[in-house]
Predict the structure.
Amino acid sequence: MTAWNAELDGGRLLADELAGKFPDARGRFGPFGGRYVPETLIPALERLAAGVHEHLHREDFRRELELELASWVGRPTALTHARTLSRRWRAAVWLKREDLAHTGAHKINNAVGQAILARRLGAKRIVAETGAGQHGVATAAACARIGLPCTVYMGEVDMQRQAPNVGRMKLLGATVVPVVNGDRTLRAAIDEALRDWVSDPLGTYYLLGSAVGPHPYPYLVRELQAVIGREARAQMLARAANLPDAVVACVGGGSNAIGLFHAFLADRQVEILGIEAGGRGTGLGENAASISFGRPGVLQGSYSLLLQDEAGQIQETHSVSAGLDYPGVGPEHALLRAAGRVRYESASDGEALEAVKECCESEGILPALESAHALAGAKRWAQANPGRRILVGLSGRGDKDMPTLQATLIAQLDQERGR
Ligand SMILES: *Cc1c(COP(=O)(O)O)cnc(C)c1O
């Protein structure tokens, strides 16, 4: 047993240690994380880690980032007291409104931060991958703003499914390259982006979109998204005169969740809840709940929990929300779950759709289908903990989900109203 496991078993890994001491010098979150990549990528990752170390917490970098966040992204985002949901769920419900951030979700916090970093590291161009297209749009926008050319790799299948986002990226000046290899979706797109990066690791910067991948990405993305929780914690203290009793966010790769959670990890009285995509059932291939149903393994350069079969083959996943439809999860979440600091549950497609409807009708806010998973988890918690305070990370807005909503909720509404 490693010293780390002994600490965990003895319950001696304290909440404030979780908030402060990971990743370690090797990029590990306890047993998770690290760098499981081909030899050719190691120098590029080491250079990036050194660049992150040098720039990320420097005063001039902070100042430039804060100015972009305030004047271009629209931060701080609002904290909204959800009056009607509070009444219906018999709890005090607060929403952290990342749906109000530029391009409609939290992803821009990371994209603009890494674009600024890339320019400081002397990169001449940015490459990125995208699945549903949201990270591609955020990256294209950030690159236009910061003044770097941008190439986005996207699976051919995803390009057909997410045509409006492909158009957005093109308008924002990005070159979108269709990936026709492999599964022609996100995983193949990541491989292509990495190949591009390795062919010119000095001039090219690889802008990864969630708290996943090899070190230093999970750390870098967490630090750039942690602004969500820092703001929300201060806003709760100012507006509710108290910390929340619980904090909840949806978990795909885990970036909006770790960004919200981080400021609360050391507050031991605050319960923390991550909600994964429960899809249409518990069987393999029916969901995208990597923590609830996954086992440890290596995916895209990092050791974490992932959905795999007996032979270790990565499983197909399903979720009504494209942004949660991913077979892995960031290594810090695997640690937080192992340490018992965060509880992970799932919400089904049906529960998420129901939560979209309830949030729309109650609060006049159309949440992203991803964020609706957090709302569904919050509702469950609120009903089990009457009269208490819960803070929900509303990671994005639902405008992008109109095709799915049209075929489900809206068709149902039309039917009920006899049209
Ligand atoms: C991409 C996305 C997610 C999932 O990504 P994380 O890295 O888990 O945050 C969640 N919500 C929205 C709105 C997204 O666009």
In short: Residues 75-104+222-416 form a domain with the Rossmann fold fold (CATH 3.40.50.1100). The mean pLDDT is 94. The pocket of pyridoxal-5'-phosphate is lined by residues 105, 107, 134, 210, 250-257, 323-324, 368, 370-371, 395-396 (CB under 6 Å). Residues 56 and 62 are 7 Å apart (CA to CA).
